[in-house]
Design brief:
Elements: H1 2-5, H2 8-17, H3 19-34, E1 35-39, H4 44-64, H5 69-88, H6 93-109, H7 114-139, E2 145-149, H8 158-162, H9 165-172, H10 174-177, E3 184-192, E4 198-205, E5 210-211, E6 215-219, E7 224-230, E8 237-240, E9 245-249, E10 257-260
Antiparallel strand pairs: 1-6, 2-3, 3-4, 4-7, 5-6, 8-9, 9-10
């Protein structure tokens, strides 16, 4: 067995196999750039276990083949790839920590010229530090806290106690909130800011999420703010007139207001939090 593993061509094949890990991370990074990844309730443990075990296996293979050219290339590719994963999923440490540890260990153990490592290591360090600082600055331009009012809102939250959530859920349930042609859906978002806040009526595409075994890729970056209700706590009455027209009014209003809804182009930089 040791003789087979010591064979140069076997090591080269294993080294090439490691590119599968690179491909998975690239796909995951791209997917979380285009979508929001939401792990299914109760599936966090299984997802993390599989993710962690796979990362550990590939790290072991990279250490075993650290002197092979393909693994050397991989060790320099992983840190920039994980950087994109970090930027698109800031705070989702389940996704970030395992590949980051793999990338960091692989970079330091690969059999590469130390001068080259120092140069690229410095570049990568600056990239991570500057990237996180820039993202932090952009994300703090908007100090308002936006909370989606739906069945996932925790009863322990202050926002939950501010509204009659039973009445809210009657408005935002699928039977009422989805347009007649099934392509649009409206939601209510509570906004807490430095003033008295507001309630946003927002329309988003419906039926574009990709449901997997342990997680769902939810469409993001496409939404239209139909109306901003001044203040917080009141619940509007909302319904669709046709496929693209929506009516809404607060309890004290005598007549419905009406808006024609067209969705904007997808905002690929939503992760910066500038909205």
């Amino acid at each position: 067995m040791n003789g087979i593993l010591d064979n140069l061509w076997v090591k080269r094949l294993i080294s090439l196999f490691n590119f599968l890990y690179v491909a998975v991370l690239v796909l995951l990074s791209y997917s979380t750039f285009v979508y929001d990844l939401e792990i299914h309730e109760g599936g966090e443990g299984i997802f993390f276990a599989v993710y962690l075990i796979a990362s550990a296996i590939f790290l072991s293979l990279m250490i075993f083949t650290r002197r092979i050219l393909a693994t050397k290339i991989i060790s320099f590719l992983l840190l920039p790839i994980v950087f994109t994963l970090l930027i698109f999923n800031m705070g989702n440490w389940i996704l970030i920590i395992p590949p980051f540890l793999v990338a960091l260990v692989a970079f330091f153990v690969c059999d590469t010229n130390e001068t080259v490592k120092v140069i690229f290591g410095t570049i990568y360090l600056l990239m991570y530090v500057l990237g996180i600082v820039v993202l932090f600055i952009f994300s703090n331009f908007n100090t308002a806290i936006e909370t989606k009012l739906d069945e996932n809102l925790s009863p322990d939250s202050d926002v939950y106690r501010l509204y009659d959530m039973q009445a809210v859920l009657e408005q935002v349930n699928e039977d009422n909130s989805v347009s007649p042609d099934g392509t649009l859906r409206f939601y209510l978002y509570d906004v807490q800011d430095n003033n008295k806040g507001e309630l946003k009526l927002i329309v988003e595409p419906y039926g574009q999420d990709k449901v997997m075994k342990f997680f769902t890729l939810k469409q993001k970056g496409i939404r239209r703010i139909v109306y901003r209700f001044e203040g917080r706590g009141e619940i509007p009455e909302i319904h669709w007139v046709d496929d693209t027209t929506i009516q809404y009014k607060l309890p004290d209003d005598e007549e419905f207001s009406e808006s024609y809804v067209t969705l904007p182009e997808k905002d690929y930089f939503e992760f910066l939090g500038l909205d």
